[in-house]
Design goal:
CATH superfamily of the largest domain: D-amino Acid Aminotransferase, subunit A, domain 2
CATH class of the largest domain: Alpha Beta
Strand content: 25-35%
Structural class: alpha+beta
Order of helices and strands: EHEEHEEEHHEEEHEEEEHEHEEEHE
Number of helices: 8
Radius of gyration: 21 Å
CATH topology of the largest domain: D-amino Acid Aminotransferase, Chain A, domain 2
Oligomer: single chain
Bound molecules: pyridoxal-5'-phosphate
Length: 366
């Protein structure tokens, strides 16, 4: 395989001794679900203080040898990204804003005291993996290949300081069709727990944030809701985001509001793309603060017409009901709203190459 990025990052290719058999793969791709099955290959690149990034390989997906003292297992030096390769209407394959994932990955790396990765190496690794596993796209319409780049601290050392050895990996998982129109509205539970405190790691995409969100999410499920929503840690008043999706509020006067990026909210790429698309739709888009009391009041008065959550995995998801310690309220009719659907359709049609890409968001792989 040709070298990628720069000569020092030459990607070596290890032959796969036994790929998943074609009939088994076909069965998986007929009903892929989310995050439960994986493609044949993975990318692996090592980092050390002495050598920097080295030994970039595209090889069989397999368990990684890890010393029991590896820093990631003790102090959670781990970050990740999530993006998709989309099948285009003309049969090609494209990534959506991969350079934005690369930039965010490096911001997360800085916050977790980990080495940054050249953006071109991040994107070219993903390209190489998608190319090797191009027969892993679900055959169903709107199926995509979900890509999970991540980095772990591999140094065997129990002292508390940044590790001196890291591994960057990319794995791929076929993802089902989230593009069906009329996705049902979800109900969400307002948690007493908090996700991120000022000065903490809320803006970094690190596994630790997710570990801390599992109990609150479990509580939401136990109470019969789909998702948890977090309020700010300082005043427990301002609406921040869900465990893994950002929020938008649409009002009857044509304004659209999303919580501002104060450092405790994850800067979603879907969130950012919707800011742009909504402005083009002629909406007045604001990044600001929205309190739980105002949310309840506006839902009751009808001033608030829609609420939706957004993120790469499920694109745009309408929120129908909100429950918490102070009772329950319904947004609009409790079902999916028109603006939510319109913004979702616009985004999906750009990602699938149905609408011309006027923003430079699409990176075609062929
Ligand atoms: C990944 C993530 C999002 C959504 O980000 P996208 O780039 O749109 O996928 C939102 N909130 C949290 C906490 C996340 O980890």
């Amino acid at each position: 395989m040709a070298s990628i990025a720069a000569p020092e990052f030459a990607l070596s290719r290890i032959e796969h001794p036994g790929r998943v058999a074609a009939d088994a793969r076909t069965a998986i791709l007929g009903n892929p679900g989310f995050g439960t099955s994986f493609s044949d290959h993975m990318i692996s690149i090592d980092w050390s203080e002495e050598k920097g990034w080295h030994d970039a390989t595209l090889g069989p997906r397999q368990p990684i040898p890890l010393d029991p003292a590896a820093a990631v297992l003790h102090y959670a030096q781990e970050i990740f990204e999530g993006l998709k390769a989309y099948r285009q209407v003309d049969g090609g394959i494209a990534l959506f804003r991969p350079e934005a994932n690369a930039a965010r990955f490096n911001k997360s790396a800085e916050r977790l005291a980990m080495p940054t990765l050249p953006e071109s190496l991040f994107v070219d690794s993903i390209r190489a993996l998608v190319d090797a596993d191009r027969d892993w796209f679900p055959a169903i319409e709107g199926g995509s290949l979900y890509l999970r780049p991540f980095m772990i601290a591999t140094e065997a050392f129990l002292g508390v300081r940044p590790a001196k050895h890291y591994k960057f990996l990319v794995i791929a998982s076929p993802a089902g069709n989230y593009f069906k129109s009329g996705a049902p509205a979800v109900s969400i539970w307002v948690s007493e727990y908090t996700r991120a405190a000022p000065g903490g790691t809320g803006a970094a995409k690190c596994g630790g944030n997710y570990a801390a969100s599992l109990v609150p999410q479990g509580e939401a499920i136990a109470r019969g809701h789909d998702q948890v929503v977090f309020l700010d840690a300082a005043e427990h008043k301002w609406v921040e985001e869900l465990g893994g999706m950002n929020l938008y509020f649409a009002f009857d006067d044509g304004t659209l509001l999303t919580p501002a990026l104060t450092g405790t909210i994850l800067p979603g790429i879907t969130r950012d793309s919707i800011l742009t698309l909504a402005r083009e739709e002629g909406l007045t888009v604001e990044e600001g603060r929205y309190s739980i009391d105002q949310w309840r009041e506006d839902a009751a008065s009808g001033r608030l017409v829609e609420t939706f959550a957004c993120g790469t995995a499920a694109v745009v998801t309408p929120v129908g009901k909100v429950s918490g310690r102070d009772g329950e309220f319904t947004i609009g009719s409790g079902g999916p709203g028109q603006l939510t659907q319109r913004l979702k359709d616009r985004l999906v049609s750009i990602q699938r190459g149905e609408t011309p890409d006027t923003h430079g968001w699409i990176t075609r792989l062929d």
